[in-house]
Amino acid sequence: MKDMRPLFADPKTDFVFKRLFGTEEHKPLLVAFLNGLLELDEEHRIVDVQLLSPEQRPVVQPLKYSIVDVKCEDARGTQYVVEMQVLNVEGFEKRVVYNVAKAYTSQLSGGQVYPDLNDIVGVTVCDFELWPQREPPHVPMLSRWRMQEQHGGARGLEQLRFVFLELPKYDTSRPPRTAVEKWAYFFREAPNLQVVPEVLAERPYRDALEAARVASFTEAEWDAYVSEGMAIQDERGALSLARKEGIQEGEQRGLQQGRLEGRLEGLRASIRKTLRKRGLALGPEEEARLEGCAELDTLERWFDQALSAASATEALRGA
């Protein structure tokens, strides 16, 4: 029923994220978002960007619905790979580095030479804690990374930079104050809002909420949004179920065969089920390797790799 719909759609889904930040109509939102997260002063603020085609994005093998991205370039030539990641998978940090590095090196395919290469900034919004450690040195909700000389601390080689916004680290004990906090609040709370809150009543946050207003969706757009939300929940549930089933199976077998053997067998079952759910088949060689492995640490690592590996062989790499 239409009256059962929320007021605003979840900006973390592919359809809404790209509606907000990947269209010419709402390009000012992308500019404001980048300026907010990069915390640029007036002299260095981005005033305009050019959206780049999907064909210019690096090709990676993530889970189907866990990553959405937009790529753009500012007037100075700096390119931005803006991503929303909803699930934490094995090798995620390496994938981010690969994506940014790929965007940097792919510029040469257009005939440029090394001096013409533009800087790349990877901007990633995470719906999970990538660095959960609370003890110093802890990583704040918004973190920016670039290369630094290890002895004297001099900064250089700044062609590749990384920005992360970890949404679960948002402080819910008080209203948002800064631009970064307001963007984090928007991403976290938009689908739960019943009215436009005072803290988001100014631009660009008000414009972002208007772009996410469900009443402006066509029926086809609403159906696409609902399908994407269900797909993300299915992915999250499948991964959670695979781990839970493996643990349960291990516990049951543990009662009969001993705790260690039961845990080993449970992990083998989890790996098989995870690969099967992702449409990846174990060949005879991989099956024999999996069945013959009696190292708990190795099987746990293989399970984590199975969540995002492009093949069964890749999932069982390393010993």
Could you walk me through the main structural features you see in this protein, from its secondary elements to its overall organization?
- Helices cover 42% and strands 11% of the residues.
- With 319 residues, it is of the alpha/beta class.
- It has 2 domains: 216 residues, no CATH class; 88 residues, no CATH class.
- Strands 1-2-3-4-6-5 form a 6-stranded mixed beta sheet, with helices on both faces.
- The radius of gyration is 22 Å and the shape is globular.
- 31% of the residues are buried.
- Percentage of helical residues? 40-55%
| Straight-line distance between termini | 53 Å
Give the mean pLDDT: 82
Order the strands across the largest sheet as they lie in space.
Answer: 1-2-3-4-6-5
